[in-house]
Amino acid sequence: MKASEIFNVLQQFAPPTYQESYDNSGLQVGDPNAEINSALLSLDFTEEVLDEALARGCQLIIAHHPIIFSGLKSISGRSYVERVILKAIKNDLVLFAAHTNLDNMRQGVNQIICNKLKLNNTRILQPLKGSLRKLYTYAPESCADKVREALFAAGGGHIGHYSECAFSSNGIGTFKADHSAKPVIGSAGGPREHVAEQKIEVIYPKHLEQHLLQALFATHEYETVAYELVSLENENAEIGAGMIGELEHPMAEVEFLSFLKDTMHCACIRHTTLLGKPIKTVALCGGSGSFLLKDALQNKADIFITGDYKYHQFFDADRRLIIADIGHYESEQYTPELLQMIIAKKLPNFATLLSQTKTNPINYFF
Fold it and tell me: Nearest 5°: phi and psi at 322?
């Protein structure tokens, strides 16, 4: 199997267009056309992870965190980043990362944390704006149904738990074909035509735009198709940062912190002052999520779980909720399992191995 086939599966689940501007998800090192028999899944790229891949016969390593974040002016082995790249090239290893695009998916990194914590009624904490668009097109009644079906098949018309959503209105379209045209209705150089048409409106996520346009052009009867594309400011409930959900039964604060520590295998949890009230609504963000505190408060979370909190940021809780910093690595440690599930669903016969190398750079002294 070619490496690019595996990349396509991951990018269909988490389109690269939804990665953050600072990010560098995707192919890091290697040939996308390389033949791959098995892949090692890890949170990070380190020299030890590459050694493990070689020992276990894996030609591909898929990690959550990219190894290349900024431009490199030389690759001489002076840093661990350069050494990883050199070792990968020398050993014909392919390195691929799925980072913030995977974070921002409804069923992505944060959902698997919710699953581990057994949260119900989960939803995106900060839904993404500007990722939805609407297509308007005009079709004669003879092909309107065919056009609608094609747009649905291409991924248009999904709103929340509903599919095949569209709006149609009837009207009269006019056109006059010049002498070079090849009209389906009327004749080249003929008089103005008046045709009963339907205006079809379909919403879609922006990464599917080319698929919808290809479907439209392939099924529409007209030589020149009239259409409009409009960006929407609607929130996209399927894409965004963080998650929030509810425990089935409220838990006392100390009881929940103990459950959190055990479930996420934390050496310790840094947290703000306990407030003396039960924990029911839980907001969370894998990795560095301090930017979501306002959203957690607006959604009336009892606790906000993330990593990489700084000293002064803890004051922002202001006794309105508990901030619990479980660590960056700890919050994202189940991401390789998620990658394995995504690949297995589409490529059940492809071998994926979970890395046994602990890549957490932080150690704790007790």
Answer: -100, 130
In the chain, % helix, strand, coil (3-state, to 5) comes to 30, 30, 40
| pLDDT (mean) for 323-337 | 98
Q: Which two tokens stand for residue 99?
A: 């980072």
DSSP secondary structure letter of residue 35: B
Angle formed by the axes of helices 335-346 and 3-13, to 10°?
110
Burial class (CB in 10 A: 0-12, 13-18, 19+), 313: middle
Residue 172: inside a domain: yes
Both 282 and 340 in one domain: the answer is: no
Alpha helices by DSSP H, the chain: 3-13, 47-55, 80-90, 100-103, 109-116, 144-153, 209-219, 253-263, 293-298, 328-332, 335-346
Q: Work out how many domains the chain is built from and give that number.
A: 3
Claim to verify: residue 24 and residue 71 sit in the same structural domain = yes
Give the single-character DSSP code of 335: H
* Closest alpha carbon to 211 in 157, 153, 162, 269: 153
Pair 91, 147 in one domain: no
CA distance 255 to 330: 19
Mark whether 164 and 202 lie in a shared domain.
yes
Which of 189, 206, 232 terminates a domain? The answer is 232
Q: Which residue has the tokens 């839904």?
A: 127
Does some domain include residue 364? no
Domain at 344, CATH number:
3.40.1390.30
Place of tokens 């929130």: 235
Structural domain including 310 reads 109-126+241-326
Which helix or strand (DSSP H or E) is residue 264 part of?
Answer: none
The predicted-structure confidence for 159-201, as pLDDT tens digits, reads as follows 988 999 999 999 999 999 999 999 989 899 999 999 999 999 9
| DSSP per-residue letters across 167-223 | EEEEEEEEE---TT---SSS-TT-PPEEEEEEEEEEEEEGGGHHHHHHHHHHH--SS
Q: Is the pTM of this model over 0.85?
A: yes
